[in-house]
Design a protein that fits this description.
By secondary structure, the chain is of the alpha+beta class. It has helices spanning 7-11, 14-27, 30-39, 51-63, 69-78, 90-94, 102-110, 113-128, 156-161; strands spanning 143-151, 166-167, 170-171, 176-184, 194-196. It has two domains: 7-128, no CATH class; 143-196, no CATH class. Helix 4 (51-63) crosses helix 5.
């Protein structure tokens, strides 16, 4: 009798992760990460959670059906893609890497926002290179804009940064963040989102 596929494998098939990993490696090479790390003076320890691994795990976390830090770290402990960890790591080699999410969470929190933005922009640019225009001869790309609003907790800091909206009944209680994403028409690839008041 054939075993039933798990819920995780139905939503998160290995071939999808492998295809995304291939694109990730093509779009953001190890040399790019080395250059970025040196330019931004980032100091990651020689352990498992290097810059390239942390960004990869953030991508996998977004694709993972559970989407939790713990689920992604447990998956990384089971099978971290070969080649992502470039420096020898004793814990990985011995199979003693902890399945707790603390170290990954620290590495993720320590990433400056500018680094994540630059990696996102690099991946978008590299994936867009060589793709055809939506309308040949136009000389530019076409984008579909998609926006949304997020209501946030009413704290003095958030209310000052993202003023509540108002209508005929007066101001709203909730600070509002507006988010805008541009999707390239030919490929459907999304640029890095922009947000503000």
């Amino acid at each position: 009798m054939k075993p039933m596929p798990s819920a995780d494998s139905a939503v998160h098939p290995p071939q999808t992760v492998q295809a995304v990993l291939t694109l990730y490696r093509q779009a953001a090479s190890p040399e790019f990460f080395d250059q970025l790390g040196a330019e931004m003076k980032l100091h990651f320890h020689n352990g498992v959670y290097s810059l390239v691994v942390v960004i990869w795990l953030m991508i996998v976390q977004r694709l993972h059906p559970k989407g939790t830090l713990l689920a992604v770290v447990q998956e990384a402990v089971r099978q971290l893609p070969p080649g992502l960890v470039r420096r020898p790591c004793t814990r990985l080699r011995e199979g003693s890497l902890s399945s707790h999410a603390g170290a990954y969470n620290q590495a993720r929190r320590k990433l400056p926002r500018e680094v994540v933005e630059r990696v996102s922009d690099r991946i978008f640019e590299q994936l867009m290179a060589g793709t055809p225009e939506a309308r040949p001869g136009l000389g530019r790309r076409l984008f579909l804009l998609d926006g949304s609003m997020l209501l946030m907790p009413n704290t003095p800091e958030l209310a000052a940064a993202y003023p509540p909206t108002s209508n005929q009944h007066g101001p709203s209680h909730w600070p509002v963040m507006r988010v805008l994403v541009a999707h390239e028409l030919t490929t459907g690839l999304a640029m890095r989102p922009e947000w503000g008041p």
